[in-house]
Design brief:
alpha/beta; Beta Polymerase, domain 2; two-stranded parallel ribbon; 26% strand
Length: 179
């Protein structure tokens, strides 16, 4: 069945990333063409400029930051941005690599409002500080919680305000019942 409306011209992810690479040159540090999600690693200092370009460029029109997450790789922290254009029906992935000690990067909430809560979650669970964020405080853990629970080096305290954080293992309990 034919559509009554013309479909938008969709760019492939690699075409989008090539456009970013051509515009920003050496600020694109790495490119991965692996399917299903090719990506570029960009200079953390250029993330706002690159984000604005991808949002405002009429051929890219990346009007949606659909997902932003933090990943701990033991030797570094990465922030991953999944971008999408509703009008063009295409998407792309950007990554930045940050040092484990005091990971910090500029916020993208001025480009995409959806960055607000996602960056708070990354701050809370991984410990990335988003410079210029309008409300950089914990969103999942209590305000006085010490540490960032999704870091590989996180050690959970035995208790929090007198309440034990130790949980019985259901595996051990099941093994005990089998005997």
């Amino acid at each position: 069945m034919a559509s009554r409306w013309p479909l938008p011209e969709t760019m492939e992810s690699l075409q989008i990333l090539e456009r970013v690479k051509n515009k920003f040159g050496d600020r694109v540090l790495e490119t991965s063409e692996k399917k299903p999600d090719p990506f570029v690693v960009v200079d953390p200092k250029a993330i706002v400029e690159i984000g604005k370009f991808m949002n405002e460029d009429p051929e890219l029109a990346m009007d949606c930051l659909s997902n932003e997450t933090g990943v701990d790789y033991k030797d570094r922290i990465e922030v991953v941005y999944h971008l999408f254009s509703y009008s063009k029906r295409h998407g792309a992935v950007l990554k930045v690599k940050l040092p484990r000690d005091n990971p910090s990067i500029a916020t993208l909430e001025g480009v995409w409002k959806s960055a607000n809560w996602m960056e708070r979650e990354i701050f809370d669970l991984i410990g990335v500080n988003f410079e210029g964020h309008s409300d950089m405080r914990r969103i999942l853990m209590p305000e006085d919680w010490i540490g960032h629970p999704q870091r590989k080096d996180f050690v959970e305290p035995a208790e929090y305000h007198g309440i034990s954080t130790v949980r019985e293992s259901p595996i051990i309990r099941l093994d005990t019942k089998k005997k």
